[in-house]
Amino acid sequence: MKQSYKKPALIISFSLSSLLLVLLTILLVASLIVYTEVSFNDSASFSLWRWNSTNNDTLKEALLITNTSTSPSSLQEPFLITNEATPPASLPLVASTATKIIKRCNKLEKIEAGLAIARAAIKQASRNKTTLEDPDYVPKGAIYQNAYAFHRSYLEMERLFKIYVYEEGDQPMFHNGPCKSIYSSEGRFIHQMEIEKGRFRTENPDNAHVYFLPFSVVMMVQYLYKPDSHSTQSIGRTIIDYVDIIGSKHPYWNRSLGADHFMLSCHDWGPSVSSYVPKLFDKSIRVLCNANTSEGFNPAKDASFPEIHLKTGDITGLIGGPSASRRPVLAFFAGRLHGHIRYLLLEQWKNIKDQDMQVYETLPEGVSYNEMLKKSRFCLCPSGYEVASPRVVEAIYAECVPVLISDHYIPPFSDVLNWKSFSVQIPVKDIPNIKKILSNISQSQYGSFGWPLLGETLAFLKPHTSNSLGSFLQHHCSRYGKVFKSHLFFSPAIISCDQELNYFILLNEDKLFQCSYPSSIHGVLGKSSMLVVVGETHKRLRSLALSLVTSTKSSPDYLNDIESIAIQILASWKGKNTVTFCEEARKFTFNVIVKQVLGLTPEDPQTTKILEDFLAFMKGLISFPLYIPGTPYARAVQARTRISTTVKALVEERRRRSIVENKKGDFLEILLSVNNLSEDEKVSFVLDALLGGYETTSLLMAIAVQCLGQSPIALEQLKKEHHNIRILKKKDEYLNWEDYKKMEFTQNVINEALRCGNIVKFVHRKAIKDVRFKEYLIPSGWKVLPVFSAVHLDQSLHDNALQFHPWRWETQGQTAKKFTPFGGGPRFCPGSELAKVETAFFLYHLVLNFRWKAEEPDQSMAYPYVEFPRGLPLKLDPIISEPSF
Ligand code: HEM
């Protein structure tokens, strides 16, 4: 048996529409009816139009047959359309041919020719996989047997389909039905047909494709059945009389022997009472909730219809529920002991004390049935006395996966809907194994996986301003809460926008979760990169990185190097009216990191070479992982090889020099002296530092500059702070750690820029065990993405979260949970302080030497890597009075 668990999103699209669409969906069923080949020959069998039919008969054939001189209305002559139409290559051409033929036909022939064209169009859509633009609705997804055929069929239905409703018969048993009971779908349909006379209903029976017999079995049971008599004869006789009247007053029943007529019933007795009229049972289309093949339901001509229990008449409060990870119960059922299947189910599971399996004959006091549906991942829908159960729709409403347990049941709209994609079907004999079967449904079967591999990745990566959540997160959070599942980066994924869970994920690195970047990143960074390695290797590399950071920080040149590079960049602005700030900031951070790590100055030829290769490397890092020559990815892999060659040469040169020259004690020298690193690891180390220290820090500077430009008060306060430091310094005296400590407001500005700018929107992790956190269940092997931006922009954690307001950091504690721009736990960014120092020192000289304003509007965008599309062009105005250099 194939089972699958469909993500709520898909189910929602079905459930939300389901009630309102009862009529439309029925009409859709009726559209199947339209494409039923109508036989006027008593002995000819029906063949329902099948979208996947391999019958290759031509439209021409169909039209020719339709165009025979044999009049169907003579009825005595058999009139048989035996073949389905094959869609023509060019539909308009066929349509015009058809029009010519139709002109010579009588009304019925016209109808048949119209149907043949519709059939051809549906078949063509199915074969060519074409979808017509439709402003209202274009179906897609695995829930459809064939979305293309369905869409075309639906459009054809809207264009063409007409139902004639017989007016004979009086209320309450005709033209009327219950709308607030377990049989409400019967009443709803009848009422819709009575009210909605215009759209699909025709007053002219000659124009109809199908004829509706508007009797209600439920009402007949209410008014005609003698309680406890166990006899349905009175109902049967009424139906016989009714069909006789229809046959004698109108030509249509006898013309087709009932084949183009349909009845609808949700009552359990629908099938049996229809047997009182053999033609109704054998030939007519019976739309039944009790779609039981062992009771004569014939899927080739009958249609299965959902049973919907509308207690109050509407569905308020019934729709929706949390995502599967927040549903603690595996399977739920509550219902009376009706029929042998329920007996087996209750006997097996009712008295078992198992939190996973909540099976009740009567729900315990105070437990809400609807809440239980929303708490459960699977909702058991066993047959009662008959096969249909309103639980199927109730489960779908609550976004719980229905588990159909029945014999001989054809689920609703099976011609259109692929039930295997959103339900589980368990044979009655497997009732004892329900728990095992449901527990074994692989976690990867959860979720609306959209495209088979990419899932929702493209929607997730859709660009948005970096100080916003983006439409994907906004929609999903409001729909499913702060933690939800999806399929991203080729894997089922849990996305967390919850500060507690994010923090928990970061802290439990290597215990419950592990860093897991996409393979594209592995290919470019190399297998020894710190972002790629895990476990012991990561620990070893990381402790080395931290000791390197500590020792370079304590070097006397550390701050001076940073400051002198800042001064160099700003000095190059002299005489310029405009600059593209992002480019300038990148120059600055690149020169700083190359100096810090490799000891190179901007003038060294290797610096330019590394920069060129590094840019290609960066582009590939975010590209798609296809190693095809010429793609950014391939160029990045090649660039990495070149950088690695350059770095290896530098290492060699330094090794030779350090033998004869004085030791510098810088990053490279320490790296050289380490014995427990392979050559590849040393190169990766340098690359990690270049990568980490370049783009991220330059972006932080750009975001701070842009926000300050829009906040004159903050800029003024920042300037004052730096001015106060400046006046205490001698000419050409460098900034020191004491000065840095005095830059308190600068720190607030930097924090706020980090919070608003969200340079690292999320990080990649995977669960290495099944993890339960609060009410969430994170399956082992799933990708887990803690989204930092969602926490940074959460209004409940940061007042006026969307506003740049550096003063919030004067009072707001920087709790690690709600502010994680540098990650957290064992992978907390080792370069965080360098990034802040660089930004602070650059801002110091910038605000003391220049005024600026945006030359054209620009905004940091999350692609999701953050970028200013125009590079943040600034108009400059030098401040002559108080230059700092
Ligand atoms: C504004 C600037 C920066 C931001 C926003 C930033 C952000 C981050 C974040 C969020 C992580 C954690 C990644 C994860 O958990 O998967 C990280 C890790 C890292 N960062 Fe930074 N970073 C910045 C600057 C730097 C600098 C300047 C360097 C180098 C000098 C650097 C080197 C690294 C390295 C090597 C790691 C990997 C740490 C590990 O896996 O243990 N970063 N950074």
Helical segment count: 33
Helix fraction, binned, reads 40-55%
| CATH H-level superfamily of the largest domain | Cytochrome P450
Oligomeric state, counting identical vs distinct chains? single chain
Beginning-to-end CA distance, first to last residue = 77 Å
Q: What would you call the shape?
A: elongated
Number of strand segments: 23
Q: Which topology of the largest domain does CATH recognise?
A: Cytochrome p450
Catalogue the ligands: protoporphyrin IX containing FE
The radius of gyration over CA amounts to 36 Å
Explain the overall architecture.
It catalyses: campesterol + reduced [NADPH--hemoprotein reductase] + O2 = (22S)-22-hydroxycampesterol + oxidized [NADPH--hemoprotein reductase] + H2O + H(+). Keywords: Heme, Iron, Membrane, Metal-binding, Transmembrane, Transmembrane helix. GO terms for molecular function: heme binding; iron ion binding; monooxygenase activity; oxidoreductase activity, acting on paired donors, with incorporation or reduction of molecular oxygen. There is one protein chain. This protein has 885 residues and is of the alpha/beta class. It has four domains: 138 residues, no CATH class; 141 residues, no CATH class; 119 residues, Glycogen Phosphorylase B (Rossmann fold, 3-Layer(aba) Sandwich), CATH 3.40.50.2000; 282 residues, Orthogonal Bundle (Cytochrome p450). The protein is 45% helix and 10% strand. It contains 33 helices and 23 strands. It has a five-stranded parallel beta sheet with strand order 1-2-3-4-5. It has a five-stranded parallel beta sheet with strand order 7-6-8-9-10. Strand 17 and strand 18 form a beta hairpin. Helix 22 packs antiparallel against helix 23 and helix 23 packs antiparallel against helix 27. The protein is elongated. The N terminus is likely disordered. The structure holds protoporphyrin IX containing FE. The site of protoporphyrin IX containing FE has 24 residues, from helix 21, helix 27 and helix 33.
